[in-house]
Amino acid sequence: MSHTCEDEHHDHSNHGHDHTAPIPTNAEQSLYPFIDTAKIICLNAVAPALPERLELYKSFLKEQESKFECGYYLQSDADCQVVIHIPFTGDCRLFSVILRTNANDPEAELNSPKTIKLFKNFNRNIDFDTLSSSKEDLKIEHPEDVGLRDSTESTNMDENTFVEHYLPRRIFQNCSSLTLFLQDNWSVDEDELCRIYYVELRGEFMGQRVLNNGAPMLSVYESAPNPVDHQKLEAEQDEIGLGM
Fold first, then answer.
1. E strands of the chain, at which residues?
2. What does the alpha-carbon distance between residue 125 and residue 105 come to, in Å, rounded to a whole number?
3. Distance between CA atoms of 235 and 227, rounded to whole angstroms?
4. b/e for 8-47, b at 16 or more Cβ within 10 A?
5. Measured between alpha carbons, how far is 164 from 145 in angstroms, rounded to an integer?
6. Three-state SS for 88?
7. Of the candidates 168, 210, 175, which has an alpha carbon nearest to the alpha carbon of residue 87?
8. How many Å apart are CA 226 and CA 181, to the nearest integer?
9. Around Cβ 168, how many Cβ atoms within 10 Å?
10. pLDDT in tens, the chain (244 residues)
11. Residue 84 contacts residue 45 (beta carbons within 8 Å)
């Protein structure tokens, strides 16, 4: 019988010396329906096998019935580092992150990701320099040589290629977003790339954030702010201040 990350609740994260067994999770706790897919950000990443008509996030965010599909994947581009920013439609409590990545595969110039930094509600510029100089909320170590090797198969049913990283629940409350920074790999050769076949976030959706008057609070992300738009806004605010 193959092991699944649900069967063996080994804590692969290194958030201290608490050896208490993590609380098991289940597929019904998937936060997939509550991800704001229009605002997902992926840096230094491509999806070479993904049809052009599909959004980039569909290469690694998959519904439960598609979790074993491996024909589509997210791959690092220039080097081994990848940033994935996943915003939610409201606030969540996060319990775990399940990852399916590549195993070591020198012939395909792929190596297992090692250090992964997690940032809760990261509200600064999402880029490699900013993340590298910021203190993460949790740093986890992904196990070496666990995952898929390069192949032409479109489906792989091996449960042992998934790794569930349990999160300290006291820290990951009131999460409006989660940012994953895959910083390095096990070979210490940054030219070897990595692949992410599957990302699943498990937890509890707390509902939309609300303002004091009870109206839902909307967030606006600007991937490339336009100075002209800001000038127009400032002009409009000046007109309001003058009673125009």
1. 41-43, 45-46, 74-76, 82-101, 115-120, 138-141, 163-166, 175-182, 195-207
2. 33
3. 12
4. eeebbbebeeeeeebeebeeebbbeebbeeebbbbbbbbb
5. 15
6. strand
7. 175
8. 27
9. 17
10. 223 333 333 344 444 445 678 999 999 999 999 999 999 999 999 999 999 999 999 999 999 999 999 999 999 999 999 999 999 999 999 999 999 999 999 999 999 999 999 999 999 999 999 999 999 999 999 999 999 998 889 999 999 999 999 999 999 999 999 999 999 999 989 999 999 999 999 999 999 876 555 555 544 433 344 444 444 444 444 443 444 3
11. yes
Residue found by looking up tokens 């994947």 in the block:
73
Structure-token pair, residue 123: 């509200």
CA 119 to chain centre: 10
Task: List the beta bridge partners of residue 13.
Answer: 140
Query: What is the amino acid identity at position 157?
Result: M
